[in-house]
């Protein structure tokens, strides 16, 4: 192993968020579930007022939109969702970076706050050696949807980074992210690369010695 390389998913490998399209697509195919979204309003309002938890909101959305679905239904939807994501939703420059690291013999880790319903399969299809993401709760063979793990974001992502890095002592680390919420773990890396930052985030990265790249170009 040359390096231990961590890639974020939403906004880094993908062009945008993946969770909302995933849940929304499932709802479009099961429209009778839409009325259950009213249950998301209390955690959404709490979050908007600064009193809510992002992980609880995420779990409430999945629980309302997909709760009660069988494993077979979830798997079938994931199999339908991913080809569209891979066809139009991933950044070519990100895929090129993954391939460069793979050819260099690096150990690839996909680390995302999005959920295991589809992130683990993205990691498998892209050839990652490990995938770390937010886990969802099941009741036997039926999806509950609320989070079964901490939301893999901010300091929790940094904790996961430390845990994995500790298993590979002496190996230099590389971290790719796209948002300020990625900074806690990116600052732990030997080399960090911020993808498509805003002007304010770019200035913050310059102060922290973090590289910035533009992966917006379509090619």
Beta-strand level of the residues, as a percent range? Answer: 15-25%
> Taking all residues together, what is the mean pLDDT?
94
The domain tally reads 1
Number of strands: 8
Helix content: 40-55%
- Largest sheet composition: 6 strands, parallel
Indicate the CATH topology.
Rossmann fold
Cross-sheet strand order for the largest sheet? 3-2-1-6-7-8
Cα separation of the termini: 30 Å
- Radius of gyration (Å): 18 Å
CATH class: Alpha Beta
**Helix-and-strand structural type:** alpha/beta
Order of helices and strands: EHHHHHHEHEEEHEHEHE
Q: What is the assigned CATH homologous superfamily?
A: HAD superfamily/HAD-like
Would you identify the CATH architecture?
A: 3-Layer(aba) Sandwich
Instruction: Provide a count of the helices.
Output: 10
What does this structure look like?
The chain is α/β, with parallel strands linked by helices and 219 residues long. It has one domain: Rossmann fold (3-Layer(aba) Sandwich), CATH 3.40.50. 47% of the residues lie in helices and 20% in strands. It has ten helices and eight strands. The strands form two sheets. A six-stranded parallel β-sheet has the order 3-2-1-6-7-8, sandwiched between helices. The protein has a two-stranded antiparallel ribbon with strand order 4-5. A hairpin with a 2-residue loop joins strand 4 and strand 5. Helix 2 runs parallel beside helix 4 (54-66). The model has no long low-confidence stretch (mean pLDDT 94).
